[in-house]
Design goal:
Radius of gyration: 21 Å
Strand content: under 5%
Number of helices: 12
Oligomer: single chain
Number of domains: 2
Structural class: mainly alpha
């Protein structure tokens, strides 16, 4: 592993790891979370405008704003560590506890008590709740429905802003240089490499098994489980999978001139090209998914879905076997809990 990282340049492997980790924390994590905070506030503003002046046009703008906020959030899904999952903040379920609990949301609409989203459980807050309301029969009904819609929207914006701030202020220093910034989750830079490489594999697995396989019946003996479709009401299931895969590809390749995991294996061009090819193929296969994934499943049209799943499995194996071995990564257990 040491020879692979140093190659013929003699570059200090620990220094290279720290540079990659720093770029991933700030060049990928900070960028996605900042975009999420900005897009979530735009969503909250669009919801307020729609409820103030209900019309097909203001509803469409609010729906588009919800759709836009999903992109950075799904891209950042590869970051299954940090304040998204760690207590006490644990922003992930507050922002995206899916599938939505429709019974809980309907009950909230019937209540007359004051709304306090910070004190609520995750079943009645977050992006899935907003989706359920925005694509309901009468989303901009005055009174309680719009009160819930506006309150839930601002709650999402507040949590997205807090997540972005906490990531930048606390987690970027911890993740970039764990030796100089004690108190974080890692002791050595190699621990950070282990984390990011494992997350690449887990994300590929989650797209394959949870976003695509679960609703297709892979976990239920072949019977469709359409309630397991992510973003079912808006019809964004395929795009959610694409965005999550885009996040994987960005962590691998690096962003905006910043380094990614790929920079750690540049002295092994065969391996780098192997992972490059799989990343590109999986993105291409996901792009070919039907836009209406639910309709495709109901019609038993699975060719594109199965092609994407096959590629994602090959990518997962390539990361967990070839890439992990090259970088001396300890393979961990996928702790995905669905939010």
């Amino acid at each position: 592993m040491i020879w692979l990282l140093m190659g013929c340049t003699g570059e200090d492997p620990t220094l290279l790891q720290e540079q990659v980790l720093g770029d991933l924390a700030s060049g990928f994590g900070s960028v996605q979370y900042a975009a999420l905070a900005e897009d979530s506030q735009a969503l909250a503003d669009a919801l307020t405008a729609a409820c103030s002046a209900p019309s097909p046009e203001t509803l469409e703008r609010a729906q588009q704003a919800w759709w836009a906020a999903r992109t950075p959030w799904k891209r950042a899904e590869v970051i299954r560590f940090g304040p998204t999952v760690e207590y006490p903040e644990r922003f992930g379920p507050k922002l995206d506890d899916w599938p939505v609990n429709a019974i809980a949301v309907d009950a909230l609409l019937e209540e007359e008590t004051a709304l306090d989203f910070e004190a609520m459980g995750t079943a009645t807050r977050g992006l899935p709740v907003l989706e359920y309301l925005l694509w309901s029969a009468d989303p901009l009904a005055q009174g309680r429905p719009c009160e819930v819609l506006e309150g839930a929207g601002q709650d999402v914006a507040n949590n997205a802003a807090a997540l972005s701030h906490l990531w930048d202020e606390r987690w970027v220093p911890w993740l970039s240089d764990p030796f100089e910034n004690p108190g974080g989750p890692w002791v050595l830079s190699q621990n950070g490499v282990d984390e990011w490489v494992n997350r690449l594999a887990f994300s590929a697995e989650n797209v394959r098994g949870t976003k695509l396989g679960k609703p297709a019946g892979d976990q239920s003996g072949g019977g469709l489980f359409l309630a397991g479709l992510e973003s079912r009401y808006s019809g964004r299931s395929s795009q959610d999978a694409r965005d999550a895969m885009d996040g994987v590809a960005l962590v691998w390749s690096g962003t905006q001139g910043r380094r990614g995991v790929r920079d750690l294996v540049l002295e092994d061009p065969v391996l780098a090209e192997q992972i490059d090819t799989l990343m590109a193929q999986c993105q291409q296969d996901l792009a070919a998914l039907p836009e209406d994934l639910e309709a495709a499943l109901l019609a038993d049209e699975r060719t594109e879905l199965e092609s994407a799943q096959d590629c994602l499995l090959a990518l997962q194996v390539g990361i967990q076997v070839d890439l992990a071995q090259a970088l001396g990564v300890s393979i961990a257990f996928n702790d995905n809990d669905g939010d």
